[in-house]
């Protein structure tokens, strides 16, 4: 795949998977810069192409009192600050057609949330910005159905589409990753495995999503073995007090050992 489409991305010749990683939501400038600096240090050491991830707002919440953001423009300016400070590309998700042009002025990649990936107007608006569009597979969709979302991007005049698998919901409170879908979706577009969201336990009676972060390495290893193009990992230096998705996040202190193991696996796979 051609990572040169992404401004400021590094280590594109390392033959590694690429990484989208960062907090679920932008909580403050200090937290975003702190996480970005740590991840960049690790990915430079391991020669992993890296894109900083952070949501400028959260629209899909279980309860009306859930954290939704610190303000759209404030959070988008923080994403730009991360990009300018560390010379790193950034990605954020959008939820409304009007978000596409607004967010595209600040970030390099626009992400379509899984629940919204069938929303034609939203996908087309993202594609028309000229940015790479990261399409998250709906929890309710088969891998094969994602070809239609990719085709919408193409029909809007862009060839810059990625697919991200974040698991499929077969029960009420759990997600399952079907690794047969990775090679299938790679036929349509570069494919990323969202490791941490795949380990969510949604629809809890308390209205707060649960998770199984102890399984992060298990899911990530399987993705790398099955030749996924990229990995998506949400990470935080204090997951227990993160304002969104803390239950399934990777602690920032554990990121280097995880990525070190995954790079070793990828090197082995590349030599087969």
Brief sketch in words of this structure:
The chain has 272 residues and is an alpha/beta fold.
Structure, explained:
This protein has 272 residues and is an alpha/beta fold. The protein is built from eight helices and eleven strands. The chain has helices spanning 29-46, 72-86, 97-104, 120-127, 146-155, 181-186, 216-225, 255-270, and strands spanning 18-22, 50-53, 90-93, 109-112, 132-136, 161-165, 191-194, 200-201, 210-211, 230-236, 250-251. The longest helix has 18 residues, at 29-46. The protein is globular and about 45 Å long. The mean pLDDT is 92.
Structural category: alpha/beta
Residue stretches low in confidence (pLDDT < 50, at least 5 long) are: none
Mean pLDDT score, rounded?
A: 92
Biggest sheet details? 8 strands, parallel, barrel
User: What portion of residues belong to β-strands?
Assistant: 15-25%
SSE succession:
EHEHEHEHEHEHEEEHEEH
Number of strands: 11
Helix percentage range = 25-40%
CATH class identity: Alpha Beta
Instruction: Please indicate the count of domains.
Output: 1
In CATH, the architecture is Alpha-Beta Barrel
Q: Based on CA inertia axes, which overall geometry fits?
A: globular
CATH-defined topology: TIM Barrel
Radius of gyration: 17 Å
Question: Which properties best describe this structure?
Answer:
single chain; 272 residues; alpha/beta; TIM Barrel; eight-stranded parallel barrel; two-stranded antiparallel ribbon; 8 helices; 33% helix; 16% strand; globular
């Amino acid at each position: 795949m051609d990572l040169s489409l992404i401004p400021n991305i590094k280590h594109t010749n390392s033959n590694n998977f690429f990484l989208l990683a960062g907090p679920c939501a932008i909580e403050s400038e200090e937290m975003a810069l702190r996480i970005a600096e740590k991840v960049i240090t690790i990915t430079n050491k391991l020669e992993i192409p890296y894109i900083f991830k952070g949501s400028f707002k959260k629209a899909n919440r279980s309860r009306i009192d859930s954290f939704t953001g610190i303000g759209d423009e404030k959070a988008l300016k923080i994403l730009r600050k991360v990009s300018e400070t560390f010379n790193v590309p950034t990605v954020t998700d959008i939820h409304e057609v009007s978000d596409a042009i607004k967010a595209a002025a600040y970030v390099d990649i626009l992400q379509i949330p899984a629940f919204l990936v069938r929303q034609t107007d939203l996908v087309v608006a993202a594609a028309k910005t000229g940015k790479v569009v990261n399409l998250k597979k709906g929890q309710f969709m088969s891998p094969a159905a994602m070809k239609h979302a990719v085709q919408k991007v193409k029909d809007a005049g862009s060839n810059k589409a990625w697919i991200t698998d974040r698991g499929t919901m077969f029960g009420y409170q759990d997600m399952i990753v079907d690794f047969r879908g990775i090679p299938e979706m790679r036929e349509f577009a570069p494919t990323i495995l969202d490791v941490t969201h795949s380990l969510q336990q949604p629809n809890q009676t308390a209205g707060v999503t649960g998770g199984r972060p102890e399984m992060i390495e298990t899911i990530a290893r399987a993705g790398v073995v099955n030749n996924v193009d990229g990995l998506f990992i949400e990470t935080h230096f204090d997951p227990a007090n993160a304002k969104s998705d803390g239950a399934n996040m990777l602690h920032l202190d554990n990121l280097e050992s995880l990525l070190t193991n995954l790079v070793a696996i990828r090197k082995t796979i590349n030599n087969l």
